[in-house]
Structures are given as C-alpha cells and as structure tokens.
Amino acid sequence: MSPKRNPTSSATAGPRPAAECITLGTLADRARALDALDERLRRLLPAATARETRLADVRNGRIVFLASSPTWASRLRLHQAALLAEARTALGGTVERFAVKVAPLPTVPPDPTKPKPLSAATTRHLRATATALQDPELRALYLQLASIAGDDS
Q1: What is the mean pLDDT of residues 72-90?
Q2: What is the chain's mean pLDDT, rounded?
Q3: pLDDT of residue 109
Q4: How far apart are CA 117 and CA 130, in angstroms?
Q5: Residue 53: exposed, middle, or buried by beta-carbon count in 10 A (0-12, 13-18, 19+)?
Q6: 3-class secondary structure for the chain?
Q7: Are the CB atoms for 98 and 79 separated by under 8 Å?
Q8: Separation CA 91–CA 58 (nearest Å)
Q9: Burial class (CB in 10 A: 0-12, 13-18, 19+), 143
Q10: What is the torsion angle, in degrees rounded to the nearest 10, for the CA atoms of residue 86, residue 89, residue 94 and residue 100?
C-alpha cells in the first residue's frame, strides 16, 4: 500500500514563482497597516505591558500578539476584551479571536544619533592641511569639513 498524500500540500510545497507571490508594494502596505494597528492597540495597555508585547498578525478573524515572556502574555490576556473591541472598530468587526504567543520581540533599530561635532584640534588640523594643499577643489573640501565644527578659532 502506498502512503496517502494530501493533494493540497504538494501544490504549496517549495518555492513559488515570483509572479505568484504578492508584490512588494502590497507587502509594504500590509506591514504599515499592521504597524498602525499595533500602535493603536498598544495605547490601550499599561506602559510596561505595551513595551513587552507586539501585534504580530491579523488573519482569519484572529489577532495574534507576541509577548516577551509567559508573565507578559498573562498580563496581556487581561486586556483581551478591550483589544478585541478596538480591533473590531479598526477593522470593521471582522476580528473574533485573540491569541498570544511567547517569543522574543522583534528588535527595533535605534534612532540615528546626531554625529559628534569635530573637536577644535581637528578643525585646526583640517584648516592647516587645507592651506598646504595645491589643489583648489581639495582645499575647498578640507575647509568645508573644518566649517562643520563651527569653531572659528
């Protein structure tokens, strides 16, 4: 006897041609919509709970959250009714179920920091080098770098 195969599993197994996949624009739109909904829903939560949880997905009438630990998952479940009500309002009443999974939260890249200003010594060295250069374009670039410091000494 040969083993029975699920006819639907072989059709979806393995890589699919790019033409059968959703477009990057559609994927980006979905990511932005999930981000906006995540922000909206987490506003309902206490600050500590909001920091330790994230909306992961909305699909088939279910919202799925991630929590960084079982403790935070339990605390999040205390707010299930309010989160479902807000999700129904945001999505037009299509959400009926709530799930929480414990998993590491995705990291958020830090905001870019302002670059450190040039030191006065660096500014002096750039200006001294500029005066020694013969090439006028290179001299102008060095002087422009020196001006970033804003130190006119």
Answers
A1: 94
A2: 84
A3: 65
A4: 19
A5: buried
A6: CCCCCCHHHHHHCCCCCHHHCCCHHHHHHHHHHHHHHHHHHHCCCCHHHHHCEEEEEEECCEEEEEECCHHHHHHHHCCHHHHHHHHHHHHCCCCCEEEEEECCCCCCCCCCCCCCCCCHHHHHHHHHHHHHCCCHHHHHHHHHHHHHCCCCC
A7: no
A8: 10
A9: middle
A10: -10
Residues 6+ apart with CB under 8 A from 79: 44, 45, 49
Average the pLDDT over 9-20 and give the result: 71
Q: Per the structure block, which two tokens stand in for 12?
A: 């979806």
118 or 95, greater pLDDT = 95
**From CA 145, how far away is CA 139, in angstroms rounded?**
10
For CA atoms 15, 21, 24, 30, the dihedral sign is: negative
pLDDT in the model for residue 152: 47
Q: Which amino acid is at 118?
A: L
pLDDT given for residue 118 in this prediction:
77
